[in-house]
């Protein structure tokens, strides 16, 4: 057990208010700077797990630690600063009149002002290649551009852990590749929730499979993807013709 783990999830259980159990005894440790894919079929509990990391949802059993600090009532603000979640639908994250205002919103909320705030906005927009679009309305951007801006809104908060929920969904092949290049250029701890197994292979070293609220596999991403029987058991499939690169 590393004292410097970016994320430590201990025996985590969660049931929604209607009684549906979404997580059962999940243990997971993610090292600083590690890139890990969270794989699993629809309804497995992947999004529910990510929402526990910054306290949007609170566990019904077990706990989460971020950078060694337990996520609980008194540390929620800190957890939200440290863990940035990019939601699947960029429109959940964009609501201001301009791109720059959207990107400034998070860091301003965490206390950044003046030159510091301006630098955060321009750095985050430059990181996602959207610097030229700062004064445009997010609603006038393409889906791929909105996804980049949504990522910038989170990067501007300079999180220690970046969580992306289905970042490649609905992107054209060029936008998908460009987003991968952006993500590969970051040095934060990365947790990627995806059904896009080649994307997981490209971006991550390690993967876990979650099914029916349980963590059922954890290992090098290429080893997991090469195990057709394991994938089949958890309703995961590589795209036709995709060859798992030899690790
Ligand atoms: N607000 C909610 N109230 C009750 N049950 C919910 C709620 N949100 C999700 N669930 C249930 O919790 C379980 C886990 O859902 P979750 O969204 O975490 O799965 P997922 O692995 O992210 O799925 P997907 O790949 O489809 O996005 C599912 O059974 C789902 O129906």
TrEMBL record:
<feature type="domain" description="ABC transporter">
    <location>
        <begin position="7"/>
        <end position="237"/>
    </location>
</feature>
<comment type="similarity">
    <text>Belongs to the ABC transporter superfamily.</text>
</comment>
<dbReference type="Pfam" id="PF00005">
    <property type="entry name" value="ABC_tran"/>
</dbReference>
<dbReference type="InterPro" id="IPR017871">
    <property type="entry name" value="ABC_transporter-like_CS"/>
</dbReference>
<comment type="function">
    <text>Part of an ABC transporter complex. Responsible for energy coupling to the transport system.</text>
</comment>
<dbReference type="InterPro" id="IPR015856">
    <property type="entry name" value="ABC_transpr_CbiO/EcfA_su"/>
</dbReference>
<dbReference type="InterPro" id="IPR003593">
    <property type="entry name" value="AAA+_ATPase"/>
</dbReference>
<keyword id="KW-0472">Membrane</keyword>
<keyword id="KW-1003">Cell membrane</keyword>
<comment type="function">
    <text>Probably part of an ABC transporter complex. Responsible for energy coupling to the transport system.</text>
</comment>
<dbReference type="InterPro" id="IPR050095">
    <property type="entry name" value="ECF_ABC_transporter_ATP-bd"/>
</dbReference>
<protein>
    <recommendedName>
        <fullName>ABC transporter ATP-binding protein</fullName>
    </recommendedName>
</protein>
<keyword id="KW-1278">Translocase</keyword>
<keyword id="KW-0067">ATP-binding</keyword>
<dbReference type="GO" id="GO:0005524">
    <property type="term" value="F:ATP binding"/>
</dbReference>
<dbReference type="InterPro" id="IPR005876">
    <property type="entry name" value="Co_trans_ATP-bd"/>
</dbReference>
<dbReference type="InterPro" id="IPR027417">
    <property type="entry name" value="P-loop_NTPase"/>
</dbReference>
<dbReference type="InterPro" id="IPR003439">
    <property type="entry name" value="ABC_transporter-like_ATP-bd"/>
</dbReference>
<keyword id="KW-0547">Nucleotide-binding</keyword>
<keyword id="KW-0813">Transport</keyword>
């Amino acid at each position: 057990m590393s004292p410097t783990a970016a994320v430590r999830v201990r025996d985590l259980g969660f049931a929604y208010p209607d009684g549906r159990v979404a997580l059962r005894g999940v243990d997971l440790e993610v090292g600083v700077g590690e890139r890990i894919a969270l794989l699993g079929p629809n309804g497995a509990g992947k999004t529910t797990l990510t929402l526990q990391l910054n306290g949007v949802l609170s566990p019904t059993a077990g706990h989460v630690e971020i950078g060694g600090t337990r996520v609980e009532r008194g540390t929620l603000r800190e957890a939200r600063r440290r863990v940035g979640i990019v939601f699947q639908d960029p429109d959940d994250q964009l609501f201001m009149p301009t791109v720059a205002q959207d990107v400034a919103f998070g860091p301003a909320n965490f206390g950044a002002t003046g030159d510091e705030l301006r630098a955060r906005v321009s750095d985050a927009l430059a990181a996602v290649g959207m610097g030229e679009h700062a004064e445009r309305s997010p609603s006038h951007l393409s889906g791929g551009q909105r996804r980049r801006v949504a990522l910038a809104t989170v990067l501007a908060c300079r999180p220690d852990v970046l969580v992306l929920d289905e970042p490649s969904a609905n992107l054209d092949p060029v936008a998908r590749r460009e987003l991968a290049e952006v993500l590969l250029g970051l040095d934060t701890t990365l947790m990627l929730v995806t059904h896009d197994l080649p994307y997981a292979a490209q971006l991550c070293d390690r993967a876990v499979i979650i099914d029916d609220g349980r963590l059922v596999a954890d290992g090098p991403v290429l080893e997991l993807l090469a195990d057709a029987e394991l994938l089949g058991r958890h309703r995961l499939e590589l795209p036709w013709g995709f060859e798992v690169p030899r690790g």
